[in-house]
Design a protein that fits this description.
By secondary structure, this protein is α+β, with helices and mostly antiparallel strands. The chain folds into two domains: 21-86, no CATH class; 103-176, TusA-like domain (Translation Initiation Factor IF3), CATH 3.30.110.40. Helix content is 40%, strand content 13%. The protein has a four-stranded mixed beta sheet with strand order 1-2-4-3. The longest helix is centred in the middle third of the chain and has 16 residues, at 71-86.
Length: 180
């Protein structure tokens, strides 16, 4: 099943670099074995108070740093595994294309793959571009995973969002400027 498999939205904490191991395991208990493939040292102390202490304080970013692996690699792999188990959370309430979406209304596109691979975050660029759009225009953000925290932030700021996934596994996240 691809990372973009459709499914019902399951409200779980998004898998981000600042998610602790404990929070990951609480939200994705079915993926414990996959996480422990990275955190092999934790296998030996699993079920102990020391494991609990470490899991509560170590983030996925810290785990990646300790393993000398890019955090994006670990986060993307875990998100992919999560989508195989839970289905991917697409961002329209009913899974259908929203009325406001049309390809010809996409005014700006940002492919954030390089930004993310370098450890950066595209939120600043998106926040700078959205207010520049005319009312009714759409901003497209291309990412290798569903950027749930960014989507939620922009929704809170009043920008309706919808995401789709292409055959290459890239997410196309659309934000509608309905205000100005």
């Amino acid at each position: 099943m691809s990372e973009c498999a459709s499914g019902d939205f399951i409200h779980r904490q998004p898998i981000t670099p600042d998610l602790t191991i404990a929070d990951f395991l609480e939200n994705y208990p079915e993926l414990e074995a996959q996480l422990l493939e990275y955190a092999t040292d934790l296998k030996d102390i699993q079920g102990t108070d020391l494991f609990v202490t470490i899991a509560n304080s170590v983030t996925l970013q810290q785990l990646a740093d300790n393993l000398d692996k890019p955090v994006l690699e670990i986060v993307t792999e875990l998100r992919s595994k999560a989508s195989e188990v839970t289905g991917v959370a697409f961002n329209s309430d009913d899974g259908n294309v929203p009325d406001w979406f049309s390809d010809d209304r996409v005014a700006k596109t940002l492919d954030a793959q390089e930004i993310l691979a370098a450890g950066g975050h595209p939120l600043g660029a998106v926040l700078a571009e959205l207010p520049e759009l005319a009312e009714g225009e759409i901003f497209e953000l291309v990412t290798p995973f569903l950027p749930e925290p960014l989507i939620e932030r922009l929704r809170q700021d009043g920008y309706p969002a919808w995401s789709s996934c292409d055959e290459e596994g890239l997410f196309h996240n659309y934000f509608h400027n309905q205000r100005n």
